[in-house]
Amino acid sequence: MQAIPAELYEVASIDGAGVWGKFRHITLPGLASVIATALLLRMIWVANSLDLILVMTGGGPGTATQTLPLHAFLTAWSGGNYGQGSALAVMLTLLLLGVVIAYVWRRQGAMTPPVSLACSAPNSPSSPSWRSPSCLALGCCCARSGRSAT
């Protein structure tokens, strides 16, 4: 929350945004990378927590605490169906690999500024976007950000 500039909330209030609008358009996008990182790490942790769940509950009662890695393990070792258990483990590995690749791809794309933030007329008071409080708060104007026109 501290990484999101307070000016964005101030400008949104001036523009007439409500609480839900501020959350949806400022807070959530500002925390998207943190949320994505937490979800990725949680997914990897769950995939690696086979031993804890197996020892504590064994996947029960019924199958209430059975995760995909535990299901693959129980299918292979308890059920004696090694082919299906290994296929489930490979599918889990491919699923995690796909999530990690999507995460890394998104993070690399986040390093470059969006086209909409490019300046059209640097330091031009006649440009309407140059004088817009929203533009100034978001840092998309050359006068505020110090970038050259692109």
Number of helices: 8
The shape, in one word, is elongated
Return the structural class: mainly alpha
How would you name the oligomeric state of the polypeptide chains in this document? single chain
Query: How many DSSP E strands?
Result: 0
| Gyration radius, in Å | 24 Å
Mean pLDDT: 77
Instruction: Catalogue the unreliable spans.
Output: 113-150
The biggest beta sheet reads: none
**What series of H and E elements makes up the topology?**
HHHHHHHH
In percent, how much strand structure appears in the residues?
A: under 5%
Domain count: 3
The first-to-last residue Cα distance is 31 Å
Helix fraction by DSSP (H/I, runs of at least 4): 55-70%
What does this entry look like structurally?
- The chain is mainly α and 150 residues long.
- The protein folds into 3 domains: 48 residues, no CATH class; 59 residues, no CATH class; 36 residues, no CATH class.
- The chain contains 8 helices and no strands.
- The C terminus is likely disordered.
Give structural attributes.
150 residues, mainly alpha
Topology:
Blueprint: H1 6-14, H2 19-48, H3 50-56, H4 68-78, H5 82-110, H6 128-131, H7 133-138, H8 142-145
Helix pairs in contact: 2-5, 4-5
